[in-house]
Amino acid sequence: MTQLLTLPLPVRDIAASAQGNAACGWCASRSRRLFTGLMLGAALAPTAQAQIPECRRSAAAGLVPADQVESAAAQQYRQMMQEAQGQRALASASEPQLQRLRYIAARMLPYTAECNDRAKQWKWEVNLIGSAQINAFCMPGGKIAFFSGILSKLQLSDDEVGMIMGHEIAHALLEHARERMAKSGGTQLLLRGAAAMLGLGGLGDLAAQGLTQLASLRFSRSDETQADALGLVVATRAGYDPRAGVTLWRKMGGAGGGNAPPLWLSTHPAGDSRITEIEARLPGLLPVFNAAPKPDRRFPKASKA
């Protein structure tokens, strides 16, 4: 995986880059209430209807205990967030771009338990880390983080953020981390870290403690195709336009600028074939999108980096 060396951005710099006046206390309170309410909705989502085909998971994942993986992920995530907070790089609840991420995620959570029954008990979290890194992840158990660089550098619309959110959530629902661990030596992966890959300066110290491997697993091309497919379905059902998957990957394809590729691309390779695969799914997704309840909030893009 390619490492890009970057410096963390203080939270005040993230907040300064946001547009509009969404940072009011009422907005922050409303965002927290909405996110909490929809998380409860996810736990109560009906599971009687047939699983969507994109939810099929590999039997290999069952070789590694889910509880152990999710517990390790929760510990890793918590320590990463503590390190980010110590560097003043963890966005506060009043940060407009964090409200945006939590709102988009909350719209998707009611559909997660239908795909993976374990998602009903996951303690979902969404955080924003101030870093120029173009990166995002969802660790096992629903631990999500975006880096501010992916929002500001790519100038993502809500629909494009939804595509990334859906894709990362899909990796967790499909339990790709468990699968990769089973195929790569099991729990020894829990003992190997790669925090320096996250481009957060002092967070690289976590590497020696083995605290970030679950955030930086390189998934197979098959895993990526599956996450694309399921992520598109989840995001579309949440009311986000699946055509944004095409514009997102075009932006990603040009993000390297001839230099080392962004970290997210080192684990999520872009290319014409990926866009072609997404385009092939659009005829089946657009009727779902047209019928889906649409978001009642739209957010301004992050200011350019």
Structural notes for this entry:
By secondary structure, this protein is mainly alpha-helical. The protein has one domain (11-44, 61-291). The protein is 47% helix and 5% strand. It has 11 helices and 3 strands; from the N terminus they run ααααβββααααααα. The chain has helices at residues 11-17, 25-44, 66-86, 96-108, 148-152, 158-173, 176-183, 221-237, 244-253, 263-267, 272-291, and strands at 125-129, 136-139, 143-147. A 3-stranded mixed β-sheet has the order 1-3-2, sandwiched between helices. Strand 2 and strand 3 (143-147) form a beta hairpin. The two termini are 24 Å apart. 52% of the residues are buried.
Please describe the topology of this protein.
Layout: H1 11-17, H2 25-44, H3 66-86, H4 96-108, E1 125-129, E2 136-139, E3 143-147, H5 148-152, H6 158-173, H7 176-183, H8 221-237, H9 244-253, H10 263-267, H11 272-291
Parallel strand pairs: 1-3
Antiparallel strand pairs: 2-3
Helix pairs in contact: 2-4, 4-6, 6-8, 6-9, 8-11, 9-11
Output the keywords.
305 residues; mainly alpha; 3 strands; globular; disordered N terminus
